[in-house]
């Protein structure tokens, strides 16, 4: 009885002999294998070029893409060489491995970019044909193979070291220096309706310190929350008496809304439909209060928080941190599949109509990943923040990007550095930016990475954002500043800001890689399906 391996080898030999006898078929299959292999290389080059190109459009310096280019460089050396060997000598062993890896990677991404399913099939078919038709023994002498192998091993290791070395060097030495724009408006966030801030009242010494420092206050309301509205009225009265500028941010308890929709099984509603209704009703209450106090609505900026909830953020970034391509692709597909453009447009219209009727200037707080979609009027990932290309093109809303350094640092297992606000403040479309928690409390009842343990650290990020053209920054949060540094922390923050004329930026590859993932996804919209 023949062994299974012997049977397979004999069947391969017979099939190969039959194909070789048909010259046209043999050549066609050989060219097909080479074409699939070349297509894999072309996709890598296209993705890299698209990421770098989109970065340039976003005003991200070409230097920032250097580690990514070094990461791909070894592939750009070895893959064309393997393709040449495949075409000339039909070498099979390593090339079958490459085709298998390509099929696996495309398969992991295909839950989101479904067009990659075609590439999976092509790579698998090409791998099978190569197994039948390819050579598993080299035509060169063993001695020459050994020398060439050692040379290739050394070359690829040298090229492979370029990427980590560049990351370390750029992370330890400044890659840019940004000059301060002193006209930037600085707001300290006051969370309203959260337990952690319930005992902080707008006393005279606090409002006086705010007035003397020249800082404004971002009154952060929780939608449909009675306590939040009552405390809002107290703060508006106190701030108006001291002529302290203020703006308003309205957030929804998004996690609770999602749980409610899931329990009720209402497929015709999205979380943004519910949030739009909550924001409209809360806005009406805000208008009643400000109108009764004689504060013109045209003088107040309202920002609606459309960013991911804590649970959503940690779920998504968990896949990014662990490089789970399949999990990340499936997550994005599941989260965005039911968010069609017309439905999101109607949710946006509800908020727009309420704001226009009441006379408020308004904007939206979005996550950083939406910035990359906005720059090319795309809507693949920005739908997670309730945006579509139709909304962006028709309304061009004021955008405030959430660059909470403490939030990013928590899910990325360490401080992501000043490169976070630097890279997201480069696009000219960004009007405002929210920075992370100063001190040791968020004021939102959540635990974040304590990266702003000194006032100098947060001032550095403010200076960088101002120098890149951001008009406003919001710092989280006033209760945390007071708890960590005392009331003198307010004047200390102003002193630090006035004393700093410029700030240096070092590189954080984790942030650039995250932006690259979003850019790569946008690059393949045409086969998203």
List the helices and strands and how they pair.
Blueprint: H1 4-21, H2 23-57, H3 66-89, H4 93-109, H5 116-133, H6 142-172, E1 176-179, E2 185-191, H7 204-213, E3 216-222, H8 226-241, E4 246-251, H9 254-264, H10 271-292, E5 301-305, H11 310-321, H12 325-336, H13 341-358, E6 361-367, H14 368-375, H15 389-395, E7 398-402, H16 405-411, H17 419-425, E8 432-437, H18 455-467, E9 472-476, H19 478-485, H20 488-499, E10 502-505, H21 509-523
Parallel strand pairs: 2-3, 2-9, 3-4, 4-5, 5-6, 6-7, 7-8, 8-9
Antiparallel strand pairs: 1-10
Helix pairs in contact: 2-3, 2-5, 2-21, 3-6, 4-5, 4-12, 7-20, 8-10, 10-13, 14-21, 18-20
Could you say which structural class the secondary elements and strand pairing correspond to? alpha/beta
CA gyration radius, whole angstroms: 28 Å
Q: How many DSSP H or I helices?
A: 21
Segments where pLDDT lies below 50 for 5+ residues? none
Oligomeric grouping of the chains: single chain
Largest pleated sheet: 8 strands, parallel, barrel
Query: What is the residue-mean pLDDT, rounded to a whole number?
Result: 87
End-to-end C-alpha gap: 50 Å
Question: Based on DSSP secondary structure assignment, what is the total number of beta strands?
Answer: 10
Assess the beta-strand content as a share of residues: 5-15%
Quick one: overall form? elongated
